[in-house]
Amino acid sequence: MKKIKFLALFWFFLSTNSWGQNEAIEAINNVIDSWHKAASVADFDSYFSHMTQDGVFLGTDATENWQNQEFRTFSKPYFDKGKAWSFTSLERNIYVDQGGELAWFDELLDTQMKLCRGSGVLKKIDGNWKIAHYVLSIAIPNDTISEVIQLKKDNDEKLTSILKSKKQ
């Protein structure tokens, strides 16, 4: 009888934990999808309400390391024009920590820049998931990387030189 109670309790714990994870993943999917939707319809307030106050957005350009307020300032003119950017997730993987307060994800996106990769971190704040860190990168096929390196070589060398001189 003790074995049956133990197994029932064990099964209940596993199913409850799994249900909690599934609920978190669904909520996180909704947040990320709503965030992308807000950008595509130029809803500035909604877009930034999905991010933490100290949120970070890393763009595709090497110089784009946007802290929240800087990102708001940079992106406001795009939103004001009626359409910021449009990202549609083609596939997404979400991982939630055991405590259910931190999550991270990666996604493959259909964008105006064609295929891109997004990844990020979310925090649960006052019961709501918020994007704390997002990284956007352009997906470059391996068989064309040499051409892309040549296209960006001069710019990268200049920026590398500037950044190295700042470290000294």
Q: How would you describe the overall organization of this protein?
A:
The chain has 168 residues and is an alpha+beta fold. The chain has one domain: Nuclear Transport Factor 2, Chain: A, CATH 3.10.450. 48% of the residues lie in helices and 32% in strands. The chain is built from 4 helices and 6 strands; from the N terminus they run ααββαββββα. It has helices at residues 2-40, 44-49, 68-80, 145-167, and strands at residues 51-58, 65-67, 88-96, 102-111, 114-125, 128-138. Strand 3 (88-96) and strand 4 (102-111) form a beta hairpin. It is globular, with a radius of gyration of 20 Å. It starts with a helix and ends with a helix.
SSE order and pairing:
Elements: H1 2-40, H2 44-49, E1 51-58, E2 65-67, H3 68-80, E3 88-96, E4 102-111, E5 114-125, E6 128-138, H4 145-167
Parallel strand pairs: 1-6
Antiparallel strand pairs: 1-2, 3-4, 4-5, 5-6
Order of strands, main sheet, comes to 2-1-6-5-4-3
Which topology does CATH recognise?
Nuclear Transport Factor 2, Chain: A
Radius of gyration: 20 Å
Number of individual domains: 1
